[in-house]
């Protein structure tokens, strides 16, 4: 229930936010640049961001929402706070500095209120209101910061997966995937999709999977390799596996896995030579085109 | 190795201390971590590249079985031997899953109750020098293997 006093305090806060917004803005931005390592953000960005938060909070208060709910339920206020936080997460600002940003606004608002209010009673109520308003902002800042960092980690994880499974064009008509690390189901799916798409786009008759960078080939990795080879063959292309070191070859044999239906070579260079031989025999057109394009 | 420390090559041949470590097998990242742990233990025990590759692959199979079929468990790596100058690694992979119904069948190449190739258990037996399975329906499975440095 909003009592008359509550309304008065809210009006006071709204008035201060409106009439002294430039002062609040200056003080808040200065407090942030002094206290925290937000240099990554730049003064201008910081100012426009701060102006957005201040305006959105004022509008939120004017809607008559309970003070503690303004940040959560007034969409522009929520968005402004989330944006502030996520931007810091992306810029690599640490969590403490990010939390300090909202705390600094609290201090700033209280300072400005103190300057423009003579009545101690009103000041006290206003301070409580400011706390209620910005505690919610602090909580939201932290939650969105964590969410922002997690988003970055997810993106980097995806990028790393993709980075580590690039399809390269070794030769006209010959694609290669140099695998590094392990080949779990998610990775296999990525490799397979990437390879099949590239085969189609390039109309490549041969693909080479190089496993020089795969330290352990157990039954699961072998199974995934076999599945990939089968998928490539279904597209009418040939698939070689290269980079099978002696220790790996002996281990695969002991596991009783039969790779005899697959063309395997010790090195990527050997596999490429084999691929070119195959192309010259089966695709003489491509060979002559190659010679032409080489000239 | 830090400067000033004697290298393993320079050091007089002394009995290997009895070292043992236990590693959880709860999720996918643990599968990778256990492979790394076995790799370092194998290097420390003096396995050559083929030996390392084989024991790491055996560990990979057993640990994955404990994770997939046994619902998770533990891997214990023990450096053994020394007394007769023989050195090796013992791996004990234990889970408290459903147990293996028919051990004979499970060891047969191509037998899988899942979507695997069914070469894991039989292949592991060929990759090591000693192999034992202790399993009971409803109680779990413990597979112990030993590979000696050649
Ligand atoms: N720890 C375990 N607990 C319960 N059942 C097991 C366990 N280990 C193996 N099994 C059973 O033995 C079967 C054979 O195991 P094996 O490792 O040879 O093949 P797989 O795991 O099915 O496939 P992969 O070739 O990928 O290893 C499994 O399908 C499973 O039914
Ligand atoms: Mg298995």
Automatic annotation (TrEMBL), chain A:
Domain of life, per the record? Bacteria
Keyword presence, Phosphoprotein: yes
Keyword Phosphoprotein among record annotations = yes
The UniProt record lists the STAS domain at 164-275
Family annotation (SUPFAM superfamilies): SpoIIaa-like
Q: Which Pfam families match?
A: RsbRD_N, STAS
Keyword terms = Phosphoprotein
- Which PROSITE patterns does this entry report, sorted A to Z? STAS
Q: Name residues in a coiled coil.
A: none
Q: What is this protein called?
A: RsbT co-antagonist protein RsbR
Q: Which organism is it from?
A: Saccharothrix carnea
Automatic annotation (TrEMBL), chain B:
| Pfam families with a match to the protein in the record | HATPase_c_2 (PF13581)
Q: Where is this region: Disordered?
A: 1-25
Q: Which UniProt keywords apply?
A: Kinase, Transferase
| Sequence ranges assigned to domain Histidine kinase/HSP90-like ATPase in this UniProt record | 50-150
GO molecular function annotations of the record: kinase activity
**InterPro entries given in the database record:** HATPase_C_sf (IPR036890), HATPase_dom (IPR003594)
Quick check: keyword Kinase in the entry? yes
Q: Output this protein's name.
A: Serine/threonine-protein kinase RsbT
Instruction: Give the organism, scientific name.
Output: Saccharothrix carnea
